[in-house]
Every structure is written in C-alpha cells, then in structure tokens.
Amino acid sequence: MPAAKPCWNVLFCVIFYEWNGKLFDRTISVPGTDNQELVSLVAAASMLGFMHRLGYSAGRLLAQKPAAIVTSARRAGTTTTLDQLVKYPEFFHMPLVSGSYWPMVHGSKPEQVLEDEEGCAVMRELGRNMAWLLKCIELGKANGITHPENPRRPMTNFIR
Question: What is the 3-state secondary structure (H, E, C) of the chain?
C-alpha cells in the first residue's frame, strides 16, 4: 500500500486503511453510504469524513482514476449531496464520468429505487460511459499515451 499521512483515530484508521489499500489495487472503486443517513439534505457525515481522510492521506494517488458521483435518497437532498461530493474528484485530477442528467435515484428500499425508471436509465448511461472511458484509458496506455504531468500550481490569496 502507498505511504499515507498519519491517522489520529485508531478504529477509523483500521477501516480506512483496509479500504485505502484495496483502492490502489483496482481500476475503479465505489464508496457508498446508506441513504438513511441523508436526513439533513447534505451528504452523510460518515461519507464526508471518509472522503476527507482519503483525500488527505492518499489524494495524489487518485489522479487519473475515473470517478462517478451517484446519490440515492427517499425524497430530497440528492442535488446538494451531488454538489458536495463532486468536489473530491475535481480536486484530485480524476476524470468525472456523467450521463445525460443528474446521477440520482429515489426510493427508501432497493425495490422502490428500481421503480425510478428515469434514475435507473441515467445509472445505466453512466455505467456505459464509465466502461467506455476505462477502455479508452487502457487503449491509450497500450499505445504509449500517458496522463499529463501537472506542475505544482501557484497558491494565491484573494486578499493581498
């Protein structure tokens, strides 16, 4: 597993490093959270904590790994959650895969989610687009095309 920054919470670290180590052995990983946590119209605190820790300890290793952000909720909160979670792949040079509409489904149970025909259609589009991008990346690697090396960006303050 790649070197990561130290962790302050032992139990969280055990869980996180177990997932973190598996992440870098795969082309794609999908973290998820129970939609029952989506009660305050924002992303679940457990998911935000996980994503913060992942970015802090190993964000540089996420570069060029395709990402897709998907939300599921009983009724509301999905758009604000999308807005929160989309920032993680944008910050770490991750290609963001999308479909033809917001990637969200609605329902309290899996059976109800399957009744959301439009949401499920968007999920299928997203899956096809992810598969296509992964094939393109592999084809590019096979033909000697590498991802861009990004220099360190300048840090400027708004107030000078």
Answer: CCCCCCCCCHHHHHHHHHHHHHHCCCCCCCCCCCHHHCCCCCCCHHHHHHHHHHHHHHHHHHCCCCECCCEEECCCCHHHHHHHHCHHHHHCCCCECCCCCCCEEECCCHHHHHHCHHHHHHHHHHHHHHHHHHHHHHHHHHCCCCCCCCCCCCCCCCCC
* Tally of CB atoms within 10 A around 160: 4
At a CB cut-off of 8 Å and minimum separation 6, what does 150 contact?
A: 93
pLDDT surpassing 70 at residue 58:
yes
Compute how many other C-beta atoms are within 10 angstroms of the C-beta atom of residue 40: 10
What pLDDT digit, counting tens, does each position of 67-81 carry? 888 888 877 778 888
Q: What span, in angstroms and rounded, lies between the C-alpha atoms of 106 and 72?
A: 6
Tokens of 34: 């129970």
> Which pLDDT tens digit goes with each residue over 18-47?
555 555 555 555 555 554 444 556 777 777
Number of residues that make up the chain: 160
Q: Rounded to 5 degrees, what are φ and ψ at 120? A: -65, -35
